[in-house]
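Quality-control log, excerpt.
Job 1 of 2 completed; input and output follow.
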Amino acid sequence: MAKRIAALAALLLSCASARTGDMATVEILGFSADGDVFAFEEFGIQDGSGFPYANRYYIDTDDDTFLPGTPIRIRLEDEQATVDAARQQTKSQAATIISDEELKQNQGLVAGWNPVTELSAEPHRIVVNPRPVVPPLDSPLEIRLEELSLEQPADCRDIGDVMGFRLLCVATAPGAETRLVHEDTTVPASRGCALGYRIAGVQTFYPEGAEPVFAVLIAVRRFGFEGPDHRFLAVTGKL
């Protein structure tokens, strides 16, 4: 009996000391009809505070920059508030940027998706057929991510390496060249203390009469209050 009580006490202690961060849910909103804008949303309950949050990102696919007035970030500092309420506020604020209806009509293709919980996926490499055509009309789209150890921001001292990343579009067609899509030189403050990255997915879109585009969704593992948090960012480019 004494041994059972000791084992139970150890189990309870281990459960009580477990620390977990929050993992945002990500939702693709879509593209503008001409492919010039890509949008997505992330939302969840913040670890530590218990406050609901929702963030919307609108990206110019020509130069991979945020549209003016974005991202839109809402955090409701009330533990009784709901995630739906936070999402509704971001949706209302974004109504003048581009309509959700246009984005919904031009969602494009989820060409590949590896959630953070997918343990068998390669975290830093993904290869997809950019269009749902069999046999394929296109060369495979291969994306590779390389983590970069960068100088620690002042707010991230004593937590270990702070990481940036480089993103490559690897040549798969004869005569093509591997191209650099993105490379960090510093870690933006908006990312927090980034500890690592993994490719979450690839979204492609072939707008009528315009150049096809892609968006790579990247999960950012960052230092959190109760454990590592996960947030998302997107890097866009032309196919």
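Job 2 of 2 completed; input and output follow.
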Amino acid sequence: MEIGKTIADLRESRGMSQETLARQLFVSRDLVSKWENGTRRPDWPTIERIARVFDVPPDRILRRDEYVFDELADCLPSGADVSEEELVPLLNAFLKGLHRRAADLFVLRYHLLKSPAQIASACGIRENHVRSSLSKTRKQLKQYLEEQKNER
């Protein structure tokens, strides 16, 4: 089930309007609407806040591993049918070519499933630096995987 439908179902099952949910989360009603119709997706801390409002575990809304791996799904070349057996050696080779700090942040996020806030705290850097670095690394990964696809 997609996250937007899950949020809408939870909200409706409690007789709650989008406006009421938005007020409880300190966001706009328009943003709640975007989550529900799939044009936006809440970040993980917001998913945790939504779960608290509905008194459900966050995994009821979206499993954390799915959330994190969805970030990586955008790195796969379009139309690529890459198996896990093919992807693991490609990821390992990509990581070996990265600067040590970028590789460490990548592993913390995508292997250990740490949040950007947790990574920032553990590494003594700002959260926006973590997000920026991960975004840059995902772009590099996408380019790397496209190059590897073209070489095959």
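Post-run check on job 2. The mean pLDDT is 90.
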